[in-house]
Write a structure and sequence with these properties.
heterotrimer, A alpha/beta (about 250), B alpha/beta (about 475), C alpha/beta (about 200), A: about 250 residues, alpha/beta, Rossmann fold, 2 domains, four-stranded parallel sheet, 13 helices, about 10% strand, B: about 475 residues, Fumarate Reductase Iron-sulfur Protein, Chain B, domain 2, 3 domains, six-stranded parallel sheet, four-stranded mixed sheet, 23 helices, transport (chain B), LutB_C (chain B)
Chain lengths: ~250, ~475, ~200
């Protein structure tokens, strides 16, 4: 299986350790993953702003970069959601369909495709609050949604439960959006920041030392809100914990 | 009506400034969502009910002309006068004429979103007709001259102290009352004489039943039963999409409506009107006002399935923190954001962007409207029609170009890296002003993933290859 | 014909027929469903009624209905009755004005049936002797209900009870008038009756 690694722009620029952990984790799990050097973005910022036409060239570049792989894996739920569900600014050729069908968010790839449940090298002796981004929760469906009353399941929690020493905080509103929303974070900054502060406060009040998520974009926003308001909580991507980070 | 785009972001920011209001609003609506969840959890058939409700509504909308004809015929047989209004203005003229024919001039009225949509009070009051809202929340909004904040709890953005001040102005009560019971009692006492002297009763309606020519009004206060039955003239206004085919279908909708809205098993009063009372006269006005046009929109027609429960508003994290007034419309929250642009695409062009597209609204909708997907589609429609700000359009165009060219993109990224490390804080926060207003920026890093990969994998692979070759 | 010369009805119908997006064949009429708990027991009714803010009024040993009402409302100045079982101080048929009804302390009526799921009771012009508004003007409401006239849930109600097809006015009251429009505080007795009590009879 030839894996193409998609590291979105903000991870590339601000959270390289998440990209590194993703790659190393895949390698630990016996996979060969390659990072195409010409990659930029999936086109989501333009598409979510309604400017779908402006995403066309970016989507085309994405296909040029990734169509040669059997699967594409990314540590970003929201980007994968865009590729899978909304990537339609370009013509839907066989190549495009192949890419859209075979792009996975890291947790679902490990959980559903590799079906790995053990990470013997991983130990994280901390209480964590799990943040499911809205894209992983309600689009990729990697966890049960509180609005539907469905039986509980959580792919990220299943994976994290194999990590030695970890424990989970129970926030009051586990499924509440943190308010990032891509360009929403700047177009409606006041509401967005309020939601972010409420989110980190909820986790902190539940005793979480860390917020862990499969979406760095949500955490970038939450971290900004926590730091500005002095909420003492740290942030870590699930890839880093599964890869063996201790703190 | 002003055509200027509703400044939702600014109005929401203002709403957030007052801690007690902000906090109460969020918690109150969240509590309604929690109560809704409790009802769902004790009903294993919940998802089946939603599916049935959705299919019934879709069927009805696909056959709307037949069902409207069937309703009209049956209602007429029952002795109800049926009127049709193409738009709000025509609706208001119909009401005016009915009143004129009877020499009437005072309407007592239960809560109805559609008469607000038609701006009926604004039309009738200058003509000497008094219109008194009898629902407590709607009355508060009327006295304050504000649109309803929420489809079910119109004054949910207010605290007891706000209501006390308003009532003091109009009912001569103590402006410092802090007991909601005392205020509700003041409203009851003020409303009774008005109810007893009103010459015309008006209600909205939640459902029209084609099979029997009847309509259903759901309230908790019982004010619709008083408003409709006290005078000898009852006028009910309903949108043409309110239809259900059969009486038996009401079981599905009534079981979902109040549970979705407030988390109560049913509204205190579920009232079925089928013919005028003895000696009375009954009129039903069926209003289009853009609905037929919406039914022709491939991407948006299912928004007509809405039964106005407000569940999407209660769950919406943006609505809970913005307040209903920030939507500048009769219909606020997620459902408002997808139907308001059908009334005025420019004025309400900001509303589909007042969302993080988290999708919770879609999950709670009892008739399964794909609300967040329609928000996404509206963004596209509005961008294509140039109904989004010029600056945003330009930024997106530039971003689209930049992200399509790896070399230029790399240059830009390295620029950011340098900027984050070297630029003084105030310059950065001005440049990235909206982000930085209430948030810190991400921390600068030593190197991008891109350069790490180049160093640690590409070069390593190359070295290994060279070693193997050697 | 242009919009100007056609009736509003015809214009709306024409618009609907011309533009409608959903196609008829794609959306067949789903069959009527009966879902969920259909338990029609008095115990379920009582629990639901309590949840909706209503209450049961049970007769003590040897006590008649009217005695029980007088016991529950000792301050009552008048008792308006729509049932033969209770004599009261005035009969609903004798109410001549709404102002008279506005002064009624307690009204007693018989419900056609009750719904166990919601604690709802059904009243129409038949039970109200055409005094549709007067029942809502009274301060308190007593409802006589037969245990034999209970349906399980709202599906059962609409499918089994013919009153929905025969009544001109039919209200399902589940508990008393209520509001939570001021700061979310639940208040019983907003505009209509302040309390609703059911007596099995």
């Amino acid at each position: 299986m030839k894996i193409g690694l998609f590291i979105p722009c903000y991870i590339d620029a601000f959270y390289p350790q998440t990209g590194i952990a993703t790659l190393e984790l895949l390698e630990k799990l016996g996979q060969e993953a390659e990072y195409p050097m010409d990659q930029t973005c999936c086109g989501q910022p333009m598409a979510n702003s309604g400017c779908n036409r402006d995403a066309k060239e970016t989507e085309a570049l994405f296909i040029r970069n990734f169509s040669k792989y059997d699967v594409i894996v990314s540590p970003s739920g929201s980007c994968v959601h865009h590729i899978r569900d909304n990537f339609d600014a370009i013509e839907q050729t066989d190549e495009v369909r192949h890419v859209r069908k075979n792009t996975y968010e890291l947790v679902e790839f490990i959980h559903d495709v590799l079906k790995v449940r053990e990470f013997p090298w991983a130990e994280f002796p901390h209480k964590v609050g799990l943040h499911n981004s809205c894209a992983t929760l309600r689009s990729l469906r990697t966890a049960s949604m509180s609005e539907l009353g469905e039986p509980f399941f959580s792919k990220p929690k299943t994976l994290l439960s194999a990590v030695k020493g970890i424990s989970f905080a129970a926030p009051r509103r586990p499924d509440e959006c943190c308010g990032f929303g891509g360009t929403y974070s700047v177009t409606e900054e006041a509401v967005s920041a309020r939601m972010g502060l409420d989110k980190v406060t909820d986790h902190h009040d539940a005793g979480a030392e860390y917020i862990v998520s499969a979406d760095t974009s949500c955490m970038m926003h939450q971290q900004g809100c926590a730091e500005r308001n002095g909420v003492p909580i740290r942030f870590i991507h699930i890839a880093e914990i599964l890869n063996g980070a201790r703190a | 009506m002003s055509n200027r785009p509703v400044p939702h972001a600014r109005l929401a920011a203002e709403f957030l400034k007052d801690e007690p209001h902000r906090h109460f609003h969020d918690e109150r609506l969240w509590d309604m969502r929690q109560k809704r969840d409790e009802q769902m959890h004790i009903m294993p058939e919940w998802q089946e009910l939603r599916e049935q409700a959705s299919r019934l509504k879709e069927h009805t909308l696909a056959h709307l002309p037949q069902y409207l004809e069937q309703f009209e015929e049956n209602a007429r047989c029952n002795g109800i006068h049926v009127h049709w209004a193409r738009d709000g203005a025509e609706h208001n003229r119909i009401v005016e004429k009915i009143l004129k024919d009877h020499g009437h001039s005072s309407i007592i009225k239960s809560k109805s979103m559609i008469t607000d949509e038609c701006e009926m009070r604004e039309y009738l009051e200058p003509k000497g007709v008094s219109v008194t809202e009898t629902d407590l929340g709607e009355r508060i909004q009327q006295l304050d001259n504000e649109l309803p904040s929420h489809v079910v709890v119109p004054a949910v953005q207010k605290l007891t102290t706000d209501v006390a001040k308003t009532f003091a102005r109009y009912y001569n009560t103590d402006p410092n009352i802090d007991d909601p019971h005392a205020l509700a009692e003041a409203q009851r006492n003020a409303a009774r004489p008005v109810l007893l002297s009103g010459d015309t009763g008006m209600t909205g309606g939640n459902f029209l039943v084609a099979e029997t020519g009847s309509f259903v009004v759901c309230t908790n206060e019982g004010n619709a039963d008083l408003s409709a039955n006290l005078p000898n003239l009852h006028i009910a206004t309903l949108g043409i999409e309110r239809l259900v085919p059969r009486m038996a279908d009401l079981g599905v909708f009534i079981r979902l409506l109040s549970r979705s809205a407030l988390g109560s098993p049913i509204t205190q009063y579920t009232t079925h009107f089928r013919r005028p009372k003895k000696g009375g006269e009954m009129h039903v006005i069926l209003v289009d006002n853009g609905r037929s046009e919406r039914l022709g929109m491939d991407d948006f027609w299912t928004s007509l399935k809405c039964i106005r429960c407000g569940a999407c508003m209660n769950t919406c994290p943006v609505y809970r923190r913005s307040g209903g007034q920030s939507y500048g419309s009769v219909y606020s929250g997620p459902i408002g954001a997808i139907i308001d642009p059908t009334f005025n695409a420019r004025k309400f062009s900001t509303l589909p962007f007042a969302s993080t597209m988290n999708g919770s609204c879609t999950n709670v909708c009892p008739v399964k409207i794909d609300i967040h997907e329609q928000l996404y589609k509206w963004r596209r429609v509005l961008a294509e029609r140039h109904e989004i700000p010029f600056v945003k359009r330009e930024i997106m165009k530039m971003a689209g170009r930049l992200l399509a060219q790896p070399t230029m993109y790399r240059l830009a990224i390295s620029g950011t890296e340098v900027a984050l490390k070297t630029m003084p804080r105030f310059v950065l926060y001005n440049y990235l002003n909206p982000w930085g207003k209430h948030r810190e920026l991400p921390h600068p890093v030593k190197e991008t993933f891109h350069s790490w990969y180049k160093k640690n994998r590409l070069n390593r692979t190359k070295t290994q290859r060279e070693e193997t070759q050697a | 014909m242009s919009d100007e010369t056609m009736s509003a009805r015809d214009v709306i119908m024409q618009r609907l027929k011309a533009k409608k997006s959903p196609q008829e064949g794609a959306y067949p009429l789903p069959p009527v469903v009966t879902l969920g708990d259909q338990d029609a027991s008095p115990e379920r009714f009582e629990a639901s009624l309590a949840l909706m803010g209503g209450r049961m009024l049970s007769l003590q040993d040897g006590e008649g209905i009217e005695q029980a009402i007088r016991r529950a409302f000792p301050e009552m100045r008048n008792l308006c009755t729509a049932v033969p079982e209770v004599e009261g101080t005035l009969r609903i048929e004798d109410l001549e004005t709404h102002e008279q009804a506005d002064k009624v302390d307690v009204m007693v009526v018989r419900a056609a049936f009750g719904v166990a799921e919601t604690g709802g009771i059904f009243l129409s012009e038949v039970e109200l002797k055409d005094h549709l508004a007067d029942v809502h003007l009274a301060q308190h409401l007593i409802v006589l209900l037969s245990k034999n006239e209970l349906v399980g849930n709202m599906h059962n109600a609409y499918q089994e009870r013919s009153e929905f097809r025969t009544a001109g006015y039919g209200v399902l009251m589940s508990g008393p008038s209520a509001t939570a429009d001021i700061q979310g505080v639940l208040i019983r007795g907003a505009q209509g009756v302040r309390s609703l009590s059911v007596i099995w009879a």
